[in-house]
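Appendix C reproduces, verbatim, an entry submitted by the partner laboratory led by Prof. M.T., so that reviewers can inspect both the input and the predicted structure.
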Amino acid sequence: MQWLIPVVTGLLAVWQWTHERDLDRQRERKRVMALYVNPFLSACEDLQSRIYNILILDGLVTLRKRYPDGKYAEETLYLIVRFFGWLSVALRYGPYTQDSFVIHHCEAVRNAFATSDFPIGPFAFFRPEQKELGKIVMTRFKGQYGIELDTVPWHEFMERLEKTPLAYSQSVQQSIQALREAQGVESLLGRDRLCAVQNHLIDLLSYIEKKEGFSLFSGRRKKCVTARKRVQEGESQGNSLAQQAPAERKRAIIS
C-alpha cells in the first residue's frame, strides 16, 4: 500500500496546481473586466441613452432646462468622444479582440459615424478624427492594477480640445451647433446618423452583457427608428392595405 502515498501526493499536487491556475485566470478576468470591459460598456450605455432621450423622449427640452447656457451640446459631444476612446482600448486590450460579433458591431458604429450614406454634416466623424478625438479624452494613472486608463471629465476634455486644431473642425463645430439650434428632434440635423449609431450600440450591449451575465440597464432597451425607416414602413403598410380586399381594407382602417 506504500505506492498509494506518492500517487495521492502527485494527485494532490496536480489538483492544487490546477486550482491555482483557475484562480489566476479568474483574477486576470476580473482585472480585464475592471480595466476594459466595464468602462467600455458604460461608455456605450451612456451614449445610447443620451441619443434615445434626445430622439425619442424629446430630451433637448429637458437638456435646455438643465443647461440654459447650452453646455449640453458639449456634454453630448463628450459622450461621443468618450465612446471613441474606450472603443480603441476595448478592441486592443479587452477579451473581445477576436470576437467576430463585437468587431462587426464596433465597426458598424464607427461606420455609422463616418459613412456618407447620411448627409455629411453634424455627427459625421471620419475614422482618423474618431481616433484623434479618442486619444484626447483618455488619460493614464497608477491604480490598483498598475498603470490604468480612464477618461477625463467633460470640462477637462473641452479644455484639452481647445488646445488642438480639432476644436475648429467642421464635425465638432457642426455637431455642437446642431444640438444648440434644433428646436426639436424633427429639426435636429444628423438625427438619422445618431439613430443608426444607437441601434448598433444596443446590439453590442445586449451581446456582451449576455456573455458576461449582467446588465447595466434594469429594463429592456429600445431602439430608435430613423425617419427613412418610418417612411419605408409607412409605404410598406400602405401597399399592404392597397392589396387587401375592400372589406378587409375597411376593417384594417377602422381597427
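The two ends are 85 Å apart (CA to CA). Additional entries are available on request from the coordinating office.
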